[in-house]
Amino acid sequence: MAAEKKEVLTLKNIRNINMENILHSVLENRSVTRSALAKENGISLMTVKHIVDALIEAGILVEKESLCGDVGRKPKVLEISEKYGSIVCIDLTSKETFRFLIYDIYRDLKAEQSFFLDTEVSYEEGLKEAAGKVKERLLELNGAVVGVAVFVPGAYDETKDLVNYDLIAGFKELHIRALFEEQFSIKNILVFHDVFAAARSEYDSQDLKAESQFYFYCGYGVGGFFIYQDVPVSGAEKMAGEVGKMLLSMDGASEGYRTLEDTVSVLAVTERMKEQKINSSFRDFLERYKRGEDQAVQLLEPVFSTISKVLYNLLWVYNPSRVVIDSCERVYCELITEHFRQFMEKMRDEAIPIHAKVSAARYDEYHRMQGCFRMARDAWIQEISDFVQ
Known about the structure:
42% of the residues lie in helices and 21% in strands.
């Protein structure tokens, strides 16, 4: 077996790493002295000088006198140039609704809007109209757009610039990245599978990060994402996480099957409610289940049981230290979480080394967007370090 080769660090690699660390420090502190940068990043003042001077020459940083201090010479501090302003996060997980947030580069929320897409035109044309509304809001804010993060409801193949998602027909042949590059006239466009963005945000929100985390989402679609030691396991062509495509069958000899998504998604449950002529919203039906009404229990109990068994099997595959369960419906998320905890307790055996901590996702409507923001800003910083010499 061949030994794994280690990355060879060149002077350019080291310079890029130092430059990225310096930019992160300036963004976190908003204004900072050269000596503080050297101390915070464990590098010499001469290294700071070479990198900072290059960033000032490129127009990325500006140096000005500090407003702090009443007596004596005021120290000079470094800040990001005011010409860099916004990062846009766009949510395309709903068929009818377009939602966006605009942050400044320091992660302060500057604008938020949600509106229905125009159904009188194609999905692509509707997105272009929506992008126009985003640009109108951007004109009200200072500074150029440095990144756009888009999260989509299916796995994204960046080599083909296509999203693997069946529930929104308009996604089938839509080149998402190319569309938004054209609309915003920048190259830093990142497209994320929504479960990856949410999983990343959940992982980063922990006070003490777990060694590994499996994130499970059960809404109108079903997905999952595994993070191990801060590294997302994306798989070939970033297709990992499509647990909703997992096949379920009660008869191994039969050619027929149903997928997990066909069985437990919100859409699947509401379809069965229609078949049984249940005149109730999904949300109300969950409340009926909580009250122990027979009709709701009979329909939903097999759903929760299926999810628990699938998650338990996934524990054997990944053996994560933490499992996070999420849904577009908060009550559905809580019921799945509680059912799975009870199932794990029932299966508990000292001989079985499964001790994952199970929790519902933090219910923060900006959560996934913040995950997207962080990655878009990181990509912008990396872009700077690649072109500034």
